[in-house]
Structure formats: C-alpha cells, structure tokens
Amino acid sequence: MGRLIAVLTAITLLIPAAPAAAAELTRVASSGEPDNPFDLDFSLRWERTQRRAAITREYAEASNPGDPAYPFATVKEPQQLRYTETANLVVPRLAVGLWEDLQLHAELPYYLAQETTWRRAAGVGPDVVDTIEGNTIDPDGSVDAVAHPIFPVGAGQTVYHGGVAGDLKVGLSWAPFAEKRDDTKPTWVVGLEVTIPTAKLYDPAAGRQVDWASPYNVSAKTGPVGQKVWRFDLSTSMSRRMGPIDPYFRAHVTALRKSSSTYSNCDQAAALTSPALIDIQAHPDMAVLCAADPDRWGAQLPFLAGLTFGAELIPYEDHVTDQKIALDLRIVADYTSRARWYNELTDATGKLLATEAYMTLVGRLGFIFRASEYVAIQGSGSLGWVTPHFLTGEDFGSRVENPNFDWRYDAPARRFRATEGSVFDLQVSGLLQF
Description:
Strand order of the largest sheet: 1-4-5-9-10-11-12-13-14-17-18-20
Structural class: mainly beta
Largest sheet: 12 strands, antiparallel, barrel
Number of strands: 20
Radius of gyration: 26 Å
Mean pLDDT: 92
Number of helices: 5
Low-confidence stretches: 4-20, 64-72
Helix content: under 10%
C-alpha cells in the first residue's frame, strides 16, 4: 500500500496544473478583475429526497423464574413500523461576485410536496406484539387493563406538508487562494451561510383530532415546514487540479440557535393533556412542570459537523469555448448530535423527541456539462446510510420534574429506535452565468 501511494504521489507531482477553473464545489463568483468585471450566476435546482427506516421498540418480556441464568425480564426489540419520508423541492439560487473571488449568494427552497408515512412492519399483530396500538401504559406510568394507543397506525398513516416556501439561506464565500490567479496554489474557499427562519412554523401538536391523528393526514390539507431556528454553517473547502482529475475536500460545522418562535412541547401543554382526547398525550401536570423551568424543558437543538471528500474526473475540456464534461464522485460523512427536536416520530406523536446522536454516510455520483461560459447543466444521485439511533429516551433521572418524559416510550425497555436507515437523493440543476 505504501509503495502504491508513493507511485500515485509521484505521478500527481509530474502532472502540471491545468489553467481551468476550480472544481464546482470550490467555484466562487468574482468581479472587479481586468478580464472579468462582473459575475452573476442564476441556477434552478430540483431535488427529490427519500428517507427510509425501520422503527423498532423495546419491550420487556418476563423470563422463566426457575432459570438462574435469566433472573430478570428479557428486553426484546422487534420492528414495529416502516417509515418513509419523501420530499420534492425546487430551489432557485442567485450568486453575485462582490469583488475578486468574493461571492454573495442566496437561495429559497419551495416545497412542492413532503410526505411522511408510517405503517406496521411485517408480522406485527399475528406474530409480533403490537406495542403501539396495543399499548396499556399511560404517560404518567400508570397501567391499565385496556389498550391506549400511543398514536394511530391502522393500515398506514401519511402526513402531508408542502406547497410552501422554506427558509431563506444567505451566504458569503471567499477564496483567499485561487488556481486561476496562481497555478502554484490550490483553490481554497471559506464560507459562512446563514439560514433565516422565514418559513411558517410547523407546530406538530396543533389541531390534533380526538384520536391524536394529525390534521394534515389528508392530501388536500398540507402542513407548514418551518422550524423557526437560525442556522449558521461555517465551511472551508479546497481543490487542486491535476491533469484530468480535480480532487477536493470540504469540512463544515453547523450551529442552530433558537428564535423567538422556536417550538417547545411546553407550548402545547393544554392540547397534550386535553380531556377531550381519547387518551391524553403527556403527564397530567405538564403545564406546572413546564412553568417551573421552561428553558430547561424546551427544545434542545442539535449541532452538525461533516467532511466531504471527492474528485471531478474530466474526460473533455475546451478552454477556448469554455466547454467541459466531468464526472463528480464524492463521499460525505455527517455527524448530528443528541437533541430534543423534530425526528421521524414527530408527525406521529405530535412532539419534539429526545433523539440520540447519529452518523450519516453518503456516496454521490454526479455529472457536469458546461456548454459554454454562460450555460451549464448538473445532475447527481446519492445513496446514504444512517447509523441506528434511539428516537425517544428522555433522561430517566429527570422523570419526576421533566414534562417531556413519557413513560410510554422514554423509559428504558420502552424506547423507539430507528434502524436500517437510508437516504436516496436525486438532483438536476440548470445554471446561467453572466
């Protein structure tokens, strides 16, 4: 392996840097240059993303009291649900060169449709204990002889969102070094993107029906998509052209900050404990517990961090006409921290839930066709894997004073977990450059 790396390194050093633009990942609109007084880029991107997972649930099964090897209850974790989320978006984006390799850009996604569906996993009922609609435990931990469904499942449930604009994203990108200025250096870009909470808030508990079904469970009535948080994404990326190969990498950290409208389960204490419901959905004293420490029991936002490694493979390029054909191969690894936030069961439960940290690993294949200096088309497909992680599980030690703690699914041996998680994404975009 060491000899192979040495050979590849030697070959790389012998290949002269091409006078072409940097990889698309590190491209920055520029203005104020002798041969380029002004850059303005406009693109329109279509995205389709599908997320899938199996959702399991722990439950305790009494062991044989005469068997000394199993003195305690056995905890099983069978599949209870199959989960699918599908989103279709159109994203217009505008980038303007403010000065030499300094870019201001903005984009505003429009959600054509976003659908969340959950249904029973195979075998639930006949062969596997139904712990959701067959649940006999109340949120405060009391046990009843009759079933109290946690949320409706039936033959399958779908919650519809969309037909609305998402959050506005604005960013600055700056390239301290650029190959087009100095071909002895790589192109290096640093950037900051701010996502402004402009979309209407999605309150998952608002308008719930008597059986706790979502009011958006019919396609004729779609719900909003906003989460009312500020997102700050700090990134750095670098690329270095080596003959027909343009390798690159990117690193980023994303921090979320609450706005004055960020949702909390405490905001809907009255709805969650309403006597008009078939079964209340929180501890009866939720309002009192929330009032005791609202900041502690409100939303707990995650942070994200990730790395991207990839390369453009360029079989054809004409510098005179500025034409280019390239394949884009990349691997993306993202980490999402523990949080009390929206997750795969929020549409079903109507709550922000304690979500365990997890990793997402994605492989992506894309193409780039630049017809001229003014027109380009890009497309990509990606497939990702999400590590198993708990979707519920408030701190058991805080159960007495925590209004978010629900004995039905936060207590050990009753938690929900997402497994077999996958992400499939398709994108196509057209770009006009002036």
